[in-house]
Amino acid sequence: MASDMIISDTMLAGLIVVLGMVVVYLIIREIRIMKTSNRALELNLEKDKLALLQQHEAKKAFPFTRLSPEQTAEIRQVQEDTAAIETTVFAKEKLLEARLARLENIVKAKKLDNLLTNAGEQEKKVK
Question: What are the alphabetically sorted keywords of the record (predicted)?
Answer without folding.
Answer: Membrane, Transmembrane, Transmembrane helix
